[in-house]
Amino acid sequence: MRVLFICSGNICRSPTAEGVLRHLAHAASLELEVDSAGIGGWHAGDPPDPRTVRYARARGYDLSSLRARQVAPADFAFFDRIYAMDQGHLRDLHHLAPELHRAKVSLFLDVVARDLDDAALGREVPDPYYGGAEGFEHVLDLVEEGCRAIVAELVARR
Questions:
Q1: The one catalytic residue among 12, 13, 49, 92
Q2: What mean pLDDT comes out for the span 34-41?
Q3: Known catalytic residue at 7
Q4: Sheet with 33-38, edge to edge strand ranges
Q5: Average model confidence (pLDDT) across the chain
Q6: pTM of this structure
C-alpha cells in the first residue's frame, strides 16, 4: 500500500501526517510506503516548519529527515491513496489527477467519517502556519485521529 498526503506547501500538515502514519504503521507491523507533497512547489527541498518538527517530536514523531516537494503527475499512478488536508487541496487534486486516478483522491479526515454518520464528512485539517502552538497541537490531534483510522482499516484487512 502506498499513501500520499497533500497540503499547500508540504511543510506543516502533510509532513505531519507522513511522520505520524509511518510511526503508527511501524508500530502495527504494517508494510506501508508513505510520502507527502504540496500543491505548490515554493518550499521544495525545505525541511518541515520548525514548529511542526518541534510539536511532532514532543509526541514522539521524528520529521527531521523529511523535505518538501511538489505533487507530480506520476504520483497519481504510483500511490494507492492520496489524501488532501482540506477542500481546496481536494479540488486542486481532482483538477490535476487524470480521470483514471481520481478515485484515489479523498479528503483525509473522511477516512475517520467512514465509521460515523455523514455529518462527520468534510472535516478539514486547518493550516497552523499563521497561528500559535494551539494550531500545531490541533493538527497533531486531527492527524493522529485520521492515521489511527487508516491503520485500523489496514490491520482489519490483513
A1: 13
A2: 97
A3: yes
A4: 33-38, 2-7, 81-84, 105-107
A5: 94
A6: 0.95
